[in-house]
Amino acid sequence: MRTLDELLDTLEGLEGRSYKAYKDIRGRYDAGWFGLDVLYVQGDPFAAPSRVEIRLSNEEAGFPDWALSSPARLRALCDWIHRRLERAAPSGSRRLGTGKGGQLGISRASQKVLARTSVQWKDPGFAIRLSVGLPARGRRIMGRAAANLFAEQLPDLIEGGACFTEGDAEDLRRHVETVEDAAAMRDRLRDHGLIAFVADGAILPRRSGVDDRPMESAKAVPFAAPASLRAELERPNGPPVVGMGIREGVNLIVGGGFHGKSTLLEALQTGMHDHPPGDGREFVLTRDDAVKIRAEDGRAVTGTDISAFIRDLPDGTDTTAFTSKDASGSTSQAAAIAEALEAGSRLLLIDEDTSATNFMIRDARMQALIHRDGEPITPLIERIRALYAEAGVSVVLVMGGSGDFFDCADTVVGLRDYHVEDLTGEARRIAAEQPRTVAPEAPHPFYLPRKRGPDPRSIDPSKGRHDVKTRSRALRSIAFGMEEIELDAVEQLVETGQLNAIAAALVEARGYFEKHPQADLGMWVREVADRVAAEGPESLTSRAEGDFAEFRAMELAAALSRLRSLRVRPSFSE
Ligand code: ADP
Ligand code: MG
Fold it and tell me: What whole-number distance in Å separates Cα of residue 301 and Cα of residue 118?
C-alpha cells in the first residue's frame, strides 16, 4: 500500500495540471495512525465533492470500553463522533480556489440518533466517510494546497473529531447512556401494554417548523404527567423514569386551539427514534411501528385496498384495488392506513389538522340529508373501535373539533396551556348525558387490507443511458429513473440520508419481485428493514456511500406506494 507521503508527492506533482488528473489519486494509503481510502474523485471543481474513507482503529481513537459495550452504545458513539466531526468540519476547512475546493465535510445529522454510513464501527475501529473538495484555480489543479489538505487539515479533523480525550468522558457518557436507556425503555413498552411514554420534564415544542432543536427553555413548558396516567419505566443507567403512559387502544388528545395538541402528537411521531441529550425528547418513546396517517390529496395510489373505508363509488370503481393518479383527501387517507397496516404497523397517529373531515366523521344532520346509500365513505369514527378490537390497531387521535369520538375512546387526554390532564371520566360523563344521535353506520366488520404484489417491470430506475439514476432532493422527493416520488407528506422521514438509502432499496425492488413472484409488498419492505436493522444501511449498497441512514419498513412502503409508475398484479393473492 502507498503511504500518505507518496500521496502528498503525487498531489504536488499535479500542481497546475488539468482537473481530470486528480483521478490518479484514487486508492488506498497508509497514513501511519490511520488508513485513507480515496473512494471517489470528482470530475470538476463544481461537481459533488470527492469522497474519502478514514479507517481508524480504536487503539488510536482511544474510546474507553464502556462506550463500546452494547449495540445501542456503539450506535450512540458513532452518532456522537458524527456530530463532533460535523461541528469541527466547517472551521477545519477553508474554501480554496474555485467551486467547493478545500472543503472537508460530513453528511448532516438531524436531531435523531440513527445508524449512518458516515461513521460506522467496523471492528476493531471506525470507518469514517468524508467529502473533500479537491482545490483548483479555474480548472487547474492546486496540488500543493491539496497536499496541505491531506497533510494537515484532514488529520487535524480526525484527531479533533474522532479521537477520545479525558475531557470528553462526561459528555460522551451522557450520550451513550441516554441512547441506551431510551432504547431499553422503548423495548419495555409492549410489556407494559403501552404504545407510548412521555417523561416528566420533556420539552416537546421545537424552535420553529424548520428548526427541530428544542424551543428556548424560558418559553417552553416542560411536560408533566397527570397522576392517573402516571407510568414508570426502568432503565439500565439510572433510576426509573416517571412520565405519562399511553395505553393500547383508542386514545384521544383534546383541547382548545393552540394549546399544544399537535406538538404532543408530533413528538410521539418521532419517538421511535432516539434523541441526543439536550433535545428535550430523550424519553419521549413510541412503539416502533407507529405511523403518522394524513390526507394527501393529489398523491398517486396504486391497487390499494381501501374498501374497509370506501366502497360503492358512483362510477363503480373497485376499491379493493383502488388506483388513482390524483387521490382525494379521503381516499389518500384511507390508502395511508391500508399501506401502514400492509407494512406491519398496528399503531396509527392521526391529527385533525392534516385529516379530511369526511374521512373522520359524519354527523346526524348529514346522515339525515345524505342517506347512507349515497355516501361511499365509512368514516373513521365508525371504524376506530373495530380497528382495535378486530385487528389490534391502536390509535392516537388529535381531535379538538368534534366530541363525537368521546364514545370511542379508552383514554381522553386534555391539553390546557400546554399542561396535560386526564379528561377520560369527564368525557364519558358528557357522552352519557349527551348521547350521539347518529345511527351507527358501519355496514360490515373491519378487515385487514388485501395484499399487493408489485409488478417488477413497473419499478424501473433507468433513465436514458443510465441503468440506475436516482437522486434525493432534501426531505422532499426521490428522483427515481424517469419518475419523481413526492415525499413531502411522509412526515416521519427525518434525514436526507434515509431518502438516499430508500432510493437504493427501491433499485433492488425490481430484481426481488422478479425472483419472488409470490412476494407481496409488505414482505419485501419488512425484509429490507430487517436487513438494515441488522447490518446497517451500508448493506443496501456496494459503493461505500457516505450519506445513507437507517429507515423503517413503513417509510420504504410509503416511498414505493407513491411511485407513479407502480403497477400491482391484479390477480395477486397470498
Ligand atoms: P394545537 O394543535 O393544540 O392547536 P400546537 O401544538 O400547534 O397547538 O401548539 C401551538 C403553539 O404552542 C405552537 O407554536 C407550539 O410551538 C407552542 N407550544 C406547544 N407546546 C408547548 C409547550 N409545552 N411550551 C411552550 N410552547 C408550546
Ligand atoms: Mg393542531
Answer: 34
